């Protein structure tokens, strides 16, 4: 009797687990030997990381300076998010697959277990496969915990003069570029998390596009957190020299774990005269389970500097993952006639908390910015758009258009809009539109009468709601993103 | 032969209020029935309960489609089973083009029936032909579903969906209201073209005009939540002259 009952219970548990697993299909972990720095954060850990990466003295000093500043700072508390106090001494700050110690020269030398991980994630690391698979080629830098595993199409890109490599390599091979631009967009002590990142950042991507060059393919970085109790602190630096163009995409996933994990990244973009950078993100870190257990704390600072005239930076983000998101990709419109754009879809389900938006800082003349934000809240999630548009005294004829729409599914979630608008120049023209709507039962019924089940109906309606943003994603990722929008809202109705 | 749609002693409540009070109706394959009745008599309620809308509770009786009870089925399964409702007030879905909606719908229904999804190119051709027959501009297929459509365009678009989905049992709730004279004719032609020996139709209307074109086999009068009279198409003509006064009294309290 009781044994039969036990079997049934076990089957039920397995079944439920397998269903949960389907919802977040990137939730597996890779069993691999890792080398970690001891737990905790102090100067020795920073020296350890720097030594591991064989960094020059100036960079170690830079890190130590950041750490000193961090010690004097405190965690920001103004965002509409709640999470337990993070114990920064209870984390690992460096973790790398042991096999990466030998610095594999080519993919043939990379641990097959690692390669299988990327295969399972659908990330093509073999260039031939990429060629056979899709029309448009995408170069990938794959970052696993604290190290870059592989970067594809390097030679072909190098032929065009494009540098695309891991941050650690850039420090070794292109120190002048790194030194010239590192920290010039996001100062070390910009905020608590940038100081932390500057002290302990492990790896990330580096991109340099030479003058008058159109990058011959999409560039992308794929971030994967694998080790438990390990923070990920990557750093991306992208420079588009005069008259160049690049489109860059980052993707992120992590295994399902019950404990929360910290991810505090910094992204710096520099666009020189007439250059254009298109930066897209599909953020799908593990969001935690239905009860709000586990998930990634995503505390990220991203900023682009349109440093010279006629530069343009465009951010597009699809944020579906993470337990807590704190993220405001911003543009500094320093040159005259510069353009900043921010297109965002932020989806919260279950217990996810999102506080995200942008800052558009108008400094130059005839600068214009455009913000389209689509926030979707379901389950017990909370979703805040926080945006700042500021026009400085000398920024004649600045223009901004902001459209900020919230969509609510069910009545246990919440949406907030927190716009800050400040202008010190009377010639500015600023427009702000905001709407909040709900998916109505009538709309759902109408779709169901046409054969769609409730989840398909929600996915269709939400995709329609997000359309203005989805169409700004590179073609290769738009379809994937559309599916993701549907998947991340599973269980939100019925 | 058993009927395609069989409604037996149907009692339906919305909240505390009973709206349908023992309604009986039987439609065989190949037949077109019309329902007329005063405002608030329960016509739309009948259409909603047939389609399985939430909040419309069957307290007594049953609905059978091809002998299978719909009572416990969710709306999408009824659609997959071949039931279609042209809404009195079609809904808007911003950002989703008419074409995308049609394709999603057709594929959902086909998948539900274990059929292959249609390939994009032949689907496009298929829909364009149907739209042309209903004098719906190609442009309308690219616009977000029903957003900014005129009243008449919305109604024509419902018929487009019907002709694309090819249901076995179609219910049209006041598809003629809000149509201009030419549009009424186009819609009526569209509906008539779908008349088929395998298909049943239930046309809810207030006006003889539509019935002039569609020529139903049987006309019912719905009043006070029941069918109070069933007859030939002449019944509709009679109503046009003398109104519902004679029938409202017949409702059993
Ligand atoms: N959700 C509801 N809650 C309360 N009463 C309702 C609801 N839906 C319908 N009713 C009532 O049920 C009755 C029948 O409504 P229904 O819409 O079915 O009428 P109808 O015959 O379609 O009228 P019309 O010719 O005006 O379209 C009306 O009195 C209406 O107010
Ligand atoms: Mg009605």
UniProtKB/TrEMBL annotation, chain A:
Belongs to the iron-sulfur cluster assembly SufBD family. Residues 223-465 form the SUF system FeS cluster assembly SufBD core domain. Pfam families: SUFBD_core (PF01458), SufBD_N (PF19295). This is FeS assembly protein SufB. InterPro entries: Fe-S_cluster_assembly_SufBD, SUF_FeS_clus_asmbl_SufB, SUF_FeS_clus_asmbl_SufBD_core, SUF_FeS_clus_asmbl_SufBD_sf, SufBD_N. SUPFAM superfamilies: Stabilizer of iron transporter SufD (SSF101960). Signal peptide: none annotated. Residues 154-214 form the SUF system FeS cluster assembly SufBD N-terminal domain. NCBIfam families: PRK11814.1, sufB. GO terms for biological process: iron-sulfur cluster assembly.
Automatic annotation (TrEMBL), chain B:
Keywords: ATP-binding, Nucleotide-binding. It comes from the Bacteria. InterPro entries: ABC_transporter-like_ATP-bd, ABC_transporter-like_CS, FeS-cluster_ATPase_SufC, P-loop_NTPase. The keyword ATP-binding applies. GO terms for molecular function: ATP binding; ATP hydrolysis activity. Gene3D superfamilies: P-loop containing nucleotide triphosphate hydrolases. It holds the Pfam family ABC_tran. Residues 5-249 form the ABC transporter domain. Belongs to the ABC transporter superfamily. Ycf16 family. This is FeS assembly ATPase SufC.
């Amino acid at each position: 009797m009781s044994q039969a009952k036990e079997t049934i219970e076990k089957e039920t548990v397995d079944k439920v687990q397998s269903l949960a697993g389907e919802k977040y299909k990137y939730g597996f972990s890779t069993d691999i030997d890792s080398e970690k720095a001891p737990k905790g954060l102090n100067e020795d850990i920073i020296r350890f990381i720097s030594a591991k990466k064989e960094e020059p003295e100036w960079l170690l000093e830079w890190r130590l300076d950041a750490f000193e500043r961090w010690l004097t700072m405190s965690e920001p508390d103004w965002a509409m998010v709640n999470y337990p106090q993070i114990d920064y001494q209870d984390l690992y700050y460096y973790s790398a697959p042991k096999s990466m110690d030998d610095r594999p020269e080519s993919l043939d030398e990379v641990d097959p277990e690692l390669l299988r991980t990327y295969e399972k994630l659908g990330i093509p690391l073999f260039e031939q496969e990429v060629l056979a698979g899709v029309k448009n080629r995408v170069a990938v830098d794959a970052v696993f915990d604290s190290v870059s595993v592989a970067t594809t199409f390097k030679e072909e890109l190098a032929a065009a003069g494009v540098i695309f490599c891991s941050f650690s390599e850039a420090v070794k091979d292109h120190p002048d570029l790194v030194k010239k631009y590192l920290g010039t967009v996001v100062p070390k002590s910009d905020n608590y998390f940038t100081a932390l990142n500057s002290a302990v950042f492990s790896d990330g991507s580096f991109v340099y596009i030479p003058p008058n060059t159109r990058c011959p393919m999409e560039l992308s970085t794929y971030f994967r957190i694998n080790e438990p109790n390990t923070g990920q602190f990557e750093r991306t630096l992208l420079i588009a020299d005069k008259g160049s163009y690049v489109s860059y995409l980052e993707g992120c996933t992590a295994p399902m774990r019950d404990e929360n994990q910290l991810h505090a990244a910094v992204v710096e973009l520099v666009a020189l005269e007439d250059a254009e950078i298109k930066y897209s993100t599909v953020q799908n870190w593990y969001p935690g389970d239905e009860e709000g257990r586990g998930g990634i704390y995503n505390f990220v600072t991203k900023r682009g500097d349109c440093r010279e005239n006629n530069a343009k930076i465009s951010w597009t983000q699809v944020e579906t993952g993470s337990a807590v998101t704190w993220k405001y990709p911003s543009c500094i419109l320093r040159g005259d006639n510069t353009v900043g754009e921010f297109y965002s879809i932020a989806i919260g389900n279950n217990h996810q908390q999102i506080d995200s938006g942008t800052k558009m800082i108008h400094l130059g003349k005839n600068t214009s910015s455009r913000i389209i934000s689509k926030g979707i809240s379901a389950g017990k999630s909370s979703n805040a758009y926080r945006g700042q548009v500021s026009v400085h005294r000398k920024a004649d004829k600045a223009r901004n258009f902001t459209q900020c729409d919230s969509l609510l599914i069910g009545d246990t979630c919440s949406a907030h809009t927190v716009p800050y608008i400040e202008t010190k120049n009377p010639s500015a023209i600023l427009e702000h539109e905001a709407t909040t709507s709900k998916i109505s039962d009538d709309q759902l019924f109408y779709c169901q009468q046409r054969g769609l089940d409730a989840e398909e109906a929600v996915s269709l309606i939400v995709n329609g709601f997000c359309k203005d943003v989805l169409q700004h994603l590179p073609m290769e990722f738009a379809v994937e993103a559309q599916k993701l929008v549907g998947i991340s809202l599973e269980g939100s109705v019925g | 032969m058993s009927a395609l749609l069989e409604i037996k002693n149907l009692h339906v409540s919305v909240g505390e209020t009973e709206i349908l009070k023992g309604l009986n109706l039987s439609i065989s394959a190949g037949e077109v029935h019309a329902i007329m009745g005063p405002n608030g008599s329960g016509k739309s309620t009948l259409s909603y309960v047939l389609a399985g809308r939430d909040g419309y509770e069957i307290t007594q009786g049953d609905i059978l489609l091809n002998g299978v009870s719909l009572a416990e089925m969710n709306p999408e399964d009824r659609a997959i089973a071949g039931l279609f409702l042209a809404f009195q007030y079609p809904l808007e879905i911003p950002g989703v083009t008419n074409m995308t909606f049609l394709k999603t719908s057709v594929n959902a229904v086909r998948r539900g029936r274990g059929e292959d999804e249609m390939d994009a190119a032949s689907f496009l051709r298929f829909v364009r032909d149907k739209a042309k027959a209903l004098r719906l501009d190609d442009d309308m297929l690219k616009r977000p579903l029903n957003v900014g459509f005129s009243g008449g365009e919305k109604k024509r678009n419902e018929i487009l969906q019907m002709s694309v989905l090819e249901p076995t049992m179609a219910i049209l709730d006041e598809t003629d209201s809000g149509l201009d004279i030419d549009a009424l004719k186009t819609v009526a032609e569209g509906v008539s073209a779908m008349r088929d020996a395998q298909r049943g139709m239930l046309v809810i209307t207030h006006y003889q005009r539509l019935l002039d074109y569609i020529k139903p086999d049987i006309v019912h009068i719905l009043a006070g939540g029941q069918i109070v009279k069933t007859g030939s198409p002449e019944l509709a003509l009679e109503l046009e002259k003398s109104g519902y006064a004679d029938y409202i009294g017949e409702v059993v309290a």
